[in-house]
């Protein structure tokens, strides 16, 4: 079971990769940049093949504020490598590009899932996992939990879950930011 689960794409979020030209608007300045999402970091450079200028670790530090307030744009805030919060608008060239960027940015923010080989007990009730008590993962915090402690289902649009998915007892009803705070 463990081996099979570790092949689940949720364990391999570092493999997410996308790059392409977008317009980045920050401090009222518009710049066409080569944007790269890889290894859960967002970087940009002046053009394809030039070294990246800025990067941010997406998880917990990057939030989509709104989408499409102007066509094909994603407004977000992020913490740059100097620890400063910035607000960006990422304007995509086509609606297809917009959808693809929006989805991959949200996916890259999802929490890492507990490794099934390392998680022996449920994070809520501390009950031991076994063939009878199978391990599940909360989509909001990524922690390994038992079935009875993860009965609830919620949509998590911030992470690109638009249909209801498994959440644990501790995360149910909580905002993403509240969950991130308890984890760090
Ligand atoms: Zn439990
Ligand atoms: Zn949870």
TrEMBL record:
Record keywords: Metal-binding, Zinc, Zinc-finger
Domain PH: 15-110
Pfam families: FYVE, PH
Gene3D superfamilies the UniProt entry points to: Pleckstrin-homology domain (PH domain)/Phosphotyrosine-binding domain (PTB) (2.30.29.30), Zinc/RING finger domain, C3HC4 (zinc finger) (3.30.40.10)
Entry keyword annotation includes Metal-binding: yes
UniProt keyword annotation of Cell inner membrane present: no
GO biological process assignments: endocytic recycling; receptor internalization
Gene Ontology MF term list: ubiquitin binding; zinc ion binding
Protein name stated in the entry: FYVE-type domain-containing protein
SUPFAM superfamilies: FYVE/PHD zinc finger (SSF57903), PH domain-like (SSF50729)
Domain FYVE-type: 116-176
UniProt superkingdom: Eukaryota
